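Hi D.,

Good news: the full-assembly prediction came through. Inputs first.
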Amino acid sequence: MSTRQSLVDRTRELTRDSIAPRHLVGIVALVVLFAAPFELDTITQLTVISAIYFAIFAMSWDTVSGYTGQFSFGHSFLFAVGGYTAGLLNLGFGVTPVVSILVAILVTMIAGFVFGAPALRLSGPYFAVVTFLLPLVLLQIFILKKDIFGGTLGLSNPQSLVSSSEFAQTVFLNYYLAAIAFVVVLAVLLVVTRSNAGRVFTAIREDEVAVAACGINPTKFKLFAFVLSAAVAGTGGALYVHSPVGQPQPSQLLAVAVSINVLLASLLGGSGTITGAAAGGLFYYLLNEQIRQVGWVIPVLGVDVSQFSLVIFSLLVLALVFFLPSGILPWVMRQGRRALATARGGDVAADGGEPPLVRTYRKYVRELRELRGDDDE
Amino acid sequence: MVLQFLSNAIIVSSMYALVAIGLTLIYSVGGVFNLAHGVNVALGAWLSWYLVANLGFNIWVGVAVAIAVPALFSLAIYLGLIRHIQDRPIIVMTVTLLIEIIWEYFIRTTVGTQARTVPQIVPGNVNFAGVHLLSNLVLAFVVSWVIIVAVFLFIDRTKFGKAIVATSMSEKGPALVGIKRGRVYAGTWLIAGLLAGIAGLFFGSYRGADWLVGQTALLIAFPIVVLGGIGSIRGSVLAAYIIGFIEIGVITYYDPRMSGVLPFIILIGILLVRPEGLLGRGQEV
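Then the structure:
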């Protein structure tokens, strides 16, 4: 009966209502991300920087493919346009990194528009085919114009955007640069996808004809998603080559494996969520590194397990497609909601884990029915 | 020179047609792209290398296995995986692409990145009107055309062939007259694997088998299928010749390095200008 007890209860109630547990987890994760460099050695920091850029690439993929359902099998095309533009400007023309990055983002957006506009008129498999081929064509051009693009070996390392006389400090600064870029991209994409535009994206994925029937132009929104995705890809690619971890090389930015890795990471995390791609990207990259380091040898074949990591992840995603098609993060959240509802002792998942829109809709339907019931009497 | 070019182009195009027919058959009936089609080609090439050049089996054992295994593999992929997800074309593409990736990495880690020579079924050369040709390639041409004609006859004359055409045209119609759709789908995957395996045998000895041989074949077959009109077998054969001639022409007269780019640029152009292809039915895309 003490007032203190009730105050605690009240606070708990308030926080429970204002901050959902999943948001709390997200905030804790971000705090950990920002506090981590104080605990990690320089080599690990470098790995995490790469992981962060990889997660940015995954978010870029998720914006167009996860949301609008237009699967891109060659998103590395956009990463490479961003990374190579920045690298070439810096190395060839001595442009300062800040300017080269901004120009690279712009060029990537233009490339996204120029190739996205015609490609997005094609639906489903055709769009996937075109996107699958774009990086292959670009790679062939790089090989043909070897003197400019450096062929299959790529270009040397451009200047770092932030650097210091000491290597450890440079890495430290670059870590924060990457982390800030990550948060900005995450925030922008969350805002866009949680707005009405995001709802239209999802609607396009579910039924494009229905969207068109509502008087909304699906192509316009798909193009918007694609150009937004290109902007993120360009940001990621340009920052990546201007960091100590990345170079404008096909193996890092353009290879088929890059596109596939990004796709796998997003599908693992849960496509069409942005947060799933962000978490999936970080998790995927770090796990990959971990696999590389343990150096297990596969018994029968006698080869290092690290060479098989892409195969392992491919198998994992194959299994996921069949058993958990929405991805890991949405599944975890569903389980969490159910557990939470049980813990609160209420009717198990009173709202059935439905989004607010659906809940509101149901409420209206219920009230409408009651009204009609009154009329009948 | 011109004769050499023409004969080369004619022979190579017929191999391409074999690969493309399987791809288009699966698409026309099931509405899905099989990106693992390259694995069938690669299986044909690698198995004949492994059995004949490595284990020293008779060449005909190699041929038999290199035809049978891809057919069964393709059927197994369909029955085991695709059957459950075929109403989601994008997921099918993702899954089949992953199968292709798994295969590529499997070869890369077990055999390496070096290309291997796939044994020829008939060794030696043929001289024909002053043109030097490998006997094996002449055989490839003959076999390819026998198969192409056989496929046409099969589709036009047999009950199963008619069921394939019916299934590609409508979903409910065939069901009404008692055609079992699942059986037709499985049949097309089996036939596609069979043709790809045979193509792989010849394609492997023509180009050499490396870890990317399947991807190479797939990337050639794609422009062909799209140019010919997805789902049209006649169109695929015609387009195989167009793409084959362009490719060999560029290699012979211009720059061999361009051979990898041109088909893709053509493909992207076609998709953007005329997505239904040359002989396609002009369906909504």
